Amino acid sequence: MKVKVEGKTKDVKTLWYDDGRQFIIFIDQRKLPHEFTYFEAKGIDDLAIAIKDMVVRGAPAIGVAAAFGMAQAWAQGKDLEATAERLIAQRPTAHDLAYGVKRMKEAAAKGDDVVAAAKAFAHEIDTRCKKIGEHGEPLIKDGARILTHCNAGALATVDHGTALAPIRAAHTKGKKLHVWVDETRPRLQGAFLTAWELFNEDIPCTLIADNAAGHFMAKGEVDLVIVGADRITANGDFANKIGTYEKAVVAHENSIPFYVAAPISTYDPATLNGSGIPIEERDVKEVLEILGKRITAEGVTARNPAFDVTPSKFVTGYITEMGVLDKVGLKRLV
């Protein structure tokens, strides 16, 4: 991921493991786009905060963070079962979190070096996301106008991204394109993170309010929609940031292709359909406040589901590291 800091452009990763100190280092996404700083997780308490408070977010990145957390606990001589339970409890919707934990438990059970296994897992996710870009790039025609919701860029993975990976690949090939960026209330990941990533990559984009997406679709100003996913079930239903479901319905109504970009680690064949996905509800302050300032009258209540479920019937295809698949092809991979 290219980042413009103090007038210089440099390549950085979203997170990594510091061998010398046994720390996990994250770009602190809570501070973006106004401040570029790092967060250091020295142990499980710090890591739990990083995951729950969205220092790190995005299913693949959370999975890698969990893998690093298991490696850190192993290196520090901590109980791996207790670490696993605590990590999985932080964000129940994202399948990658449990997947990363499971992979490291398997490594430990075999007597492998868990730190080395976690680093290999991070590289694996990075490679998978790069391939998502390669497979998704042909879907983006020269001059395409793409809508995306939430942030599924490099910040949501290790690098490259999921939904943004095909966009980056198309831009690198010299295709002219434009990205409509939903602001993504209530955490504003689109406004704070996606727009920041695209700006740093010099990819043309325009920020819009969440409820303006249908307007631009109806006017014929959106050619395709690409979003990420936090969990994909056996039948192809998927969970993503709240507001994704309505984007899929409106895209379907306007005959606009709707793609889900995610690595196979996000696919959960044990959950048969979307009704089995646990939906995290977060602090209502995220809805009642913006940047710490209350926006409604005292006493008004709120609900804050962090995700919704989109039925597979609205999905044109799943962009994975194995290619662009339909829901039948997705099921055959596992």
Report on this structure:
The structure is a single chain. With 334 residues, the chain is of the alpha/beta class. It contains eleven helices and 18 strands. The strands form five sheets. The chain has a seven-stranded mixed β-sheet with strand order 8-7-6-9-12-17-18, with helices on both faces. A four-stranded mixed β-sheet has the order 13-10-11-16, covered by helices on one side. The chain is globular, with a radius of gyration of 19 Å. 49% of the residues are buried. The mean pLDDT is 95.
The CATH superfamily of the largest domain bears the name Translation initiation factor eif-2b, domain 2
Give me the CATH fold name of the largest domain. Rossmann fold
Radius of gyration: 19 Å
First-last Cα distance:
30 Å
CATH class division of the largest domain: Alpha Beta
Structural class: alpha/beta
Helix content: 25-40%
CATH architecture classification of the largest domain: 3-Layer(aba) Sandwich
Low-confidence segments, ≥5 residues, pLDDT <50? none
Overall 3D form: globular
